[in-house]
Each structure stands twice: as C-alpha cells, then as structure tokens.
Amino acid sequence: MAALLGFFLLLLQFGPSACSNVYIVYMGERSPELDPALVQDSHHGMLAAVLGSEPAAKDAILYSYRHGFSGFAAVLTGSQAARLADWPGVVRVVRNRVLDLHTTRSWDFMRVSPSPSVGILSESRFGEDSIIGVLDTGIWPESASFRDDGIGEVPRRWKGKCIVGDRFNASNCNRKIIGAKWYVKGYEAEYGKMNTTDIYEFMSARDAVGHGTHTASTAAGALVAGANFRGLASGVARGGAPRARLAVYKVCWATGDCTSADILAAFDDAIHDGVDVLSVSLGQAPPLPAYVDDVLSIGSFHAVAKGIVVVCSAGNSGPYSETVINSAPWILTVAAGTLDRTFLAKITLGNNSTFVGQTLYSGKHPAKSMRIVYAEDIASNNADDTDARSCTAGSLNSTLVKGNVVLCFQTRAQRAASVAVETVKKSRGVGVIFAQFLTKDIASSFDIPCVQVDYQVGTAILAYTTSTRNPTVQFSSAKTILGELIGPEVAYFSSRGPSSLSPAVLKPDIAAPGVNILAAWTPAAAISSAIGSVNFKIDSGTSMSCPHISGVVALLKSMHPNWSPAAVKSALVTTANVHDNYGFEIVSEAAPYNQANPFDYGGGHVNPNRAAHPGLVYDMGTSDYVSFLCSMGYNSSAVSSMTQQHASCQHTPKAQLNLNLPSVTILELRGKLTVSRTVTNVGSAMSKYRARVEPPPGVDVTVNPSILIFNSTVKRLSFKVTFQAKLKVQGRYTFGSLTWEDGTHTVRIPLVVRTMISNFYVNA
C-alpha cells in the first residue's frame, strides 16, 4: 500500500531510459598515498586515451570519484565502455541506472525523551557533534525543525561545504545544516537540462518535494512546539538526535528520478566531508545485482570501511517474502513498524448505525447526510465487476458517482485506498469508504474524505446500502487516538526477508516506526488544490523508519565515537524488543495477521535506551566483509580492487555461517552443524555472562562454552553453537534465539534454521 501512496522509497529499476549512454567506471579503493587531484588527473588521462583527446574527455566526464574510492562517470558509447572495462585497474563498468522516487509520537513511543536526566538522549548530549548525511530530495532550510538554537560551533573535523544555487545561499546553512550539495549531472545526461518552467524544482539543495525535509527532520530535527498536520497528531515535533548536525546531499529530483552516477558522487563527497552516519532510502528492487555491480553496495562499502554507519530502508514490497533490499552485511537495513497512535472518524448511517474507521482527512464535512452508493452497482459499461468493486481507475460511471459517497472493497488486483480516492474524485464524488484488510497504514486524502474500515464493517455498510431505498451516511471530524492501540506491529508494506541475494545474512536488521509519521515538510508545493501548503505532514514507508534508526545511530556515535559500524549494528540488534507495549509477542500485519519473526523485523523493534549499553557486541571489520565477498563467488581481482586488500578468494559459501553477525541463519541443516561467534565486552570490565537458548522447533541447540567470563585483560571471547536436527521437517524455516545475560544486560540474537532431509527443498 505504501508504495502506491507515494511514500518515496527509492527503488532502482530499469525504465524506458535504460538505453543510457552514461557509464560508471569503478576502480575500487583509492590508494591513501595518492593525492585526490592526481587521481582525478588519472581519470581524465584514461578517458582522453579512449576518446582521443583531452577536450573530448573533459566534455564527456560527469564526476570524478576520488575521495572514498576511485572511478568516474562519463558519457560513453557501448564500445568505449567495453574498452575501459578491459583497462588495467578497472573493476567494473556499469551503466547508469535511473531511480524513481518511491514526528511527534514516535520518539516518545520508543522512550527517547528529553525530560529525564538519564537515558540515551541526555547521555549523548542530544547527539551533539554527530553528523548525519542524508541522501534524498534536499531540505527546506527555513523550517523550524532546522533551527540551531543552543547548538555549539561546527565540529572542526568537518570538511563539507554549502553549495549555493537557486534560492539557496550560504546563509541557509547554520550550525544545524552544516553542508548542502546537489547532484544533477547524471540526471541531465539522461534527460537533458532540467526544465524548471515545466517542473516545480530548484537547481540547488532546496527541497521542492518534501520527502528529504521529512526524513532529515525525523533524524535530527529541533524541538518544535505545536506541530500538527491540519490539527492531527498535535504535539512537540523533534528528531531523534535534536543537536546532531545535518549534511544534505540532494540526489533526487521533483520528477521522481535519481541516477546512480549522482548517488555515487554523493557517497564519495560524504566520505570526504566527514559524516558519521548516512541515511539512505535508496535501493534496487529484486532481482538484485551482485554486490560488486551495485552502486549502493559499493558506495556503502567504502563508507563503512571509513567508519561511517550506513542506514538504508528495507523496501515497501511487503508482506511478500524475499523482497527485502539493501541486504549487504555492512548495511544497517530497516523495516517499518507501527505506533500506538491512529486517527479515527465516526461513520453514521441513515438508520443511525455507527461505525469507526481510520482517516487522515481533516477538511470540512457537510452538515447534512450524503447519499452512499456501492461501487459495483455504478460500474462503467466497459468495466468488470472486480475492477468496479475496488474503484479501479476508469471503472465507475461518472454520472452515477457525482455527488455521492462510494463504498469500495479492496481486491487482490487493487489494494490501495488512494487509487479509489482518485477514481471517485475525478468523477466528482464527495467521499470514499474503503473496506480492506486490517492495517494501520492510512491513505492520504486531502480533497474528499476517505475512511478506511475492515471487511466486516464494510460488509455491514453494504448490507445497509442494498436494503435501503435511499441510503445515506455522515462522517465526523477525525480525532487523534493516542496510547490505546497495541504497538509496535510490523507494517504490512514493509519488505520481508530472507534476502534473495545472500539469504545466509539475516535481513532486515531492525524495525523502527514507519507508519503515519509526522515530520517537517516543504511549503513550496501545495499538497492538494483544497489544502495548499503545509509545514508538517504525515507520511508512511520504510523511508520513514530509516531516519529513525539514523537518529539513534547519531546518539550512539556521540556516546561511543570509537565504535565500528558493526558494533553499532550489533548494539541495536541485540537489544531490540520482540514484545509490544502490552508484553505480547510482536505481530506482523498481513492477511491474516501472524506472529512476527526475524524475516519481518530482524532482531526486533529498536530500543534506543538499551542499545546505549548493550554489554556485548558482535564486531566486524573490513577483512570480514572481504571474506564475505569471496564467499559469494566473486573473483579475487574484483574483490581486491574493490577493497584495496589482497584477496585470494576461494568459493566457500559455508564461510558465511561464521561471519560474525548478531544472528545465525542456517539455510540447510542436515544432521549436525557448528558455527562460531566472537563477542567483545563493552560493559563492566569484570563481568560473567550465561547463555540461554530458545531453540528453533525441531532443533537441538548447544552453546560451548555456556559461560563467558571477562576481566580487565580478557575483552573478547569466542564460542561455538551446535545445531542438531531432531525432526524430519523438510524446507521449513524455524526460529529461536540465543541470549547472553549477566544480570544487567540481555544480549539476544535470532537463530534461523531450515532443516533439510534431501537435496530437494521447497520454501515453507
């Protein structure tokens, strides 16, 4: 649903413009001995040799990547690209891809509060001096969320700049927004010069869309009293790390397009500039490319190698399995969860029956009752009943819709309330009741009311409309309902694991709030003809959950600046909640609802305060990721060039089992199997941990040793986990956990096992 509602998860896909003549020539890690200027000169020299002259090379090159890694983007013919692919030192030549553009309560819900004197916010000084880089659609700098009141001077280590442009000058940066850059060369190489006459856009880091402003304020917005979306969700809006700094990298444009050449340039700059965290709602929908061919995997690998935590959204293709994206082990991949808040309106029928539904409509309602009609009864002549029932575009008779409220039912082919709203609105209807499966994700409807109900309520309303000569309905104004709902739950739209590329690496890693999130918005463009512009807006998607984790990471980096990206990920995963606010096991929105598992939320729903003091962490470094790349079957030269480490790769897929992840995933358990892990003590020097196992059903699990004792000299200890299949259940995933406890800390990792009894298997 979220994808259809325009929730801006950025999905890489080949479109009509896939015949692009823009190529990215990737040359791997830049040698630290080489000056960036010399690296750039070498790129021009290579290109000149292929194109025949220096002027031709100067005209063709778009970007020279020379900080975090080496390479360039250029306009080339296919034969020129092929010649460069054989050039010494070139790892890959990949075609530029075009990408499409896919809060008051959330931080209190996660108990990240500015009022107590203890907790992650106060201990981290509200994230002060952490720098969050946001790759998105830019920023609206005048928003109150980006004030710099009470924030100290810009950290001296910062090397970034504010690049001026259309309605964006140096004064738009402050001690909150400390960097702003924009990237359009890859876009214009695909489509020609940006026409800002036809498209409302700014040739600068200024945000014309709103999405980048929303994500940036979610991660690091200042406290803003009285924030609301047309009266809904009123309260104090704030980001997770209110005193963290923001570096803006605008890589996506109002047309909904972004290109991989521009994105890789932003990664290169962010590494040079000195960000601590990168918040990136970008990715490629399955089928996923090899990690050595994927620009996002490449850029994030080099960022992580420099100590930068890269946080990415998991995708909005749920609830289907194997749809999770951004699945490299060095990326922190975020699923979306719900809050304990919703927005309800009362439905009163002409017979005085009343029902309650969810809505974000906050406009005026007619004082009188309105006539209600069933969509299937007013189908257009050329529409089938199923299309009409769900109010698919063009399926209704406009004459019979005009002036009426239309009752629509979700179908397998048409799941989105937003589509029904557009269909009814174009036919001059005055409202929609949309019956669907249960979900807390509410469609945006600004011009006419749309109230979402479940099938049971929808069926009751249908019975009334079919039994009454002149059925009518009346809606009440929407109200914010807070603290009365069970949460979190895994959002229906959130993409699920396992990864289709590397299923032995558990993805997603973590879940965070991503449904009905209020955050800052750009007032530049009206959200509807009836409402005009707003300063805050409610939105949903894993694009919204991603900056929640980015904000938490900024807090953790303020407290633990020397932690590696893997240590930060481990702290989040091993302390996450697997129970909701009422103590029940978290459930997953699906049809039907079911108990959530690690393929839905990884380690669980984020618990920022516990993550600040995890006790133990499962740490990794670049050499571990090199071993992983080798285990994926990539050749030694490609891996060596990408990492600037000598790699003598042997294709050993089982090596992934011993990758020091904060999880264990066994794809094929036949009999007995042993894996190893190593933990690092980041708590009290003198500590003693005991293992507690909840084995996956049908599997025996033993841990050796089952007690870990740390002291001032012993800070890292290894252990082995042995799995023994008990039941001959073929092909089914089962789930358990391994927890280390010392009386103060609870360090939990998920165990995922699929038992096999032959060489043939099927998905459970």
TrEMBL record:
Q: Where is the signal peptide?
A: 1-19
Q: Which residues are catalytic?
A: D136, H211, S543
- Keywords linked to the UniProt accession: Hydrolase, Protease, Serine protease, Signal
Occurrences of domain Peptidase S8/S53 (ranges): 128-580
Task: Please provide the Gene Ontology terms (biological process) for this protein.
Answer: proteolysis
Any single GO molecular-function term of the entry would be: serine-type endopeptidase activity
Identify the CDD domains for this entry: PA_subtilisin_like, Peptidases_S8_3
Q: One Pfam family this chain carries?
A: Peptidase_S8
Q: Keyword Protease: yes or no?
A: yes
Inhibitor I9 domain location, by residue?
Answer: 22-102
Keyword flag Hydrolase: yes
Q: Which residues form the Subtilisin-like protease fibronectin type-III domain?
A: 658-753
**Family membership noted in the UniProt record:** Belongs to the peptidase S8 family.
* Protein name from the UniProt record: Uncharacterized protein
Please name the taxonomic classification of the source: Eukaryota, Viridiplantae, Streptophyta, Embryophyta, Tracheophyta
